[in-house]
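Example 4.3 (complexes with small molecules)
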Amino acid sequence: MTTIINNNAAFSIEDFNLWYGNDQAIHQINMKIPRNEITAVIGPSGCGKSTLLKTLNRMIETIPSVNTSGSIKYNDKDIFSKKMLVEELRTHVGMVFQKPNPFPKSIYENVAYGPKIHGIKKKKVLDEIVEKSLRGAAIWDEVKDRLNQNAYGLSGGQQQRICIARCLAIEPDVILMDEPTSALDPISTLKVEELIKELKKDYTIVIVTHNMQQAARISDKTAFMLNGELVEFTDTDQLFSNPKDKRTEDYITGRFG
Amino acid sequence: MTKKANLNYSVQEMISKNKKSNSLGNLVEKLVPIFLLFCAIVSVLTTIGIVFTLLKESLTFFTKVSLKDFYFGTEWSPWTDKFGVAPLITGTLLITVIAICVALPIGLAAAIYLSEYASEKVRRTIKPILEILAGIPTVVYGFFALTFVSPLLGEIFTDMKIFNALSAGIVVGIMIIPMIASLSEDAMSAVPRSLRDGALGLGATKFEVAIKVVLPAALSGIIASVVLAISRAIGETMIVTIAAGATPNMTFDPTQSIQTLTAFIVQGATGDTSYHSVIYNSIYAVGFTLFVFTLLMNILSQYISRKFREDY
Ligand SMILES: Nc1ncnc2c1ncn2[C@@H]1O[C@H](COP(=O)(O)OP(=O)(O)OP(=O)(O)O)[C@@H](O)[C@H]1O
Ligand SMILES: [Mg+2]
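Answer. The structure with adenosine-5'-triphosphate bound is encoded below.
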C-alpha cells in the first residue's frame, strides 16, 4: 500500500463499546496499537480480551447478536465503514486462534489455502509461498518431507505453527493471536514464542495471553483489561515493574480473584 | 475444608446403603442385555429369512427360465412368456437418474443455505417443514405427478405420453430432496466452527468457506445421504406405479411410458397370478435383482465415504 501513514499506530481504537445482545462486554476503550511491535493483552477470564481481539479483524461479526459503537481505525481507515470490505481487512489482519485449527487437508494444502482463494494458482508460485511460510513459522525442517500428509497427523505445537504458516502465507501486516500457546507444552510454547519475537521484524502482533511471564518475555507494550475496561496500557517493563493503577498491581502480583 | 463440612450425613454411606437394598435393580441390570440381544437377533433373523425366501423362489424361477434369458433378454412380457428383465432395469435407472438430477442440486443448495446462510430462526422453521415433506405418503406424490406435473410437461413436450418416465422421475426427485437436504445439512452443521473461522480469518468469503471448507469436510456425510436417496429412488414404488405407466419399454427417452422393477412387482402381486406359476416366481427374481441393486449401492456408499473421509 502506498498510502502515507502519518502516525505509527496500526489500530486506533476510540470510545469503543461492544454488546452481546444486552450484555455489554467492552466499555469505552481508547487505545493505539503501535505498528511493528508486539502488544500483549492480559486480564482475568471473561474480561473481554478475545472479544477485543476478534473485533480488530471483524471476526466478531460471525456472532449475530453483537452490536458496537465508537470507532476503530486500521491504518487510518474506519474498519466498520461501508467502503471497508471485510475480506480485504482480513487479508491484511490475519489471525491465529487459541486452539490449533488446521483444515483436514494436507500440510501443503493448508498453507496454500489462503493464496489459492485469493486467486494465486501457479503451482510454482504456490510451492515457493508454502516453503517460505513454513520456514517463517519455523517448521519447515520438521515437515518438508511430508507436505502431502494430513495436518491432523501433527502434534498440537506443530499444528499451531502450521496455522501460523497458513496466516503468513497471505503476507498480512498484522497478526492477531488469541492465547496461541495455551494448548501447547512448555517446549512447543518456547518455540512459538521465539517465532513470535522473530516475526516482530515484519509484522505488527497483538497477542492475548493468560501467562504474564509470557507477556513480559515477548511483548513491547502490555494492556491490562478488567471487566471489559482497559485499565492500563503502557510499555511492558513499566507495567510489570511499576504499575500506575492499583488494580493492575493487584492482578500482576496475584492478589486478585 | 473437609468434604463433609456442611452436611450432617455422608453421601458415601447413602450410596452404599442404596446399593445393598437395590437387588431388583441388579436383576434388571442383568436382564437388560439379554433382552437387547434378543431384539438384535430377531432383526438379524428376519433379514436372513427375507433373503432366504427371495433366493428360494428366485432359484425356482431360474429352473424355468435361464439366467441368460432373464438378464440378457430385452423384452419383458411375462404374460407371453418373455422374461428379459433389461427393460425394467433401464426403467428403474431412467427414473433414478432423473430423480437425482432434480434432487442433488436442489437438495445440496438447500443444505448449504440452511447450514451456512440461514439465521437460527429460519433454520428452525424450515427444517421441520422439510421433515414434514419427507413424511407425505408417496401415493400423494404419485397423484401429484400424474395430475399436475404430467399435464404441465405435456404443454412443453407435445408428443409426451400422459404416463411417462419424466414426470414420475421429477416427482421421485422432489420426494428425495428433503432427505438429501436434511442429512447433508446435518453433516455440514457438524463441521466445527473453528474450521470456518480459520478460513474466514484468511479473508475467505462465506461462499468460499461453504464450498472449499465445509463441503469437503462434510463430504462423506453428504455422499452417504445421496446414496441413501438413490436407494430410495431405486426402491420407490407408488409414484412410478401410478405415474410412469406399466409399459416395460427399453428406452432412455423420458417422455415414454416405462415400467420399473418395483412397479412390476406391484403389478405381479396385485394381478391374478396363480401361486407357483412362472410369473409368480418372476416377482421374486425381480425382487432379488432389486435387492442386489440396493446392496451394491450400500457397499458403494461405504467405500466412497471411507475414501473421501476428512476427519476433523
Ligand atoms: N458469543 C457470546 N455470546 C454472548 N456473550 C459472550 C460471547 N462471547 C463472550 N461473551 C461474554 O463476553 C465477555 C468477554 O468474553 P471474552 O471471550 O472476550 O473473554 P476473555 O477475556 O477472552 O476470557 P478468556 O480469558 O476466558 O478467554 C464474557 O463475559 C463472556 O461471557
Ligand atoms: Mg478468550
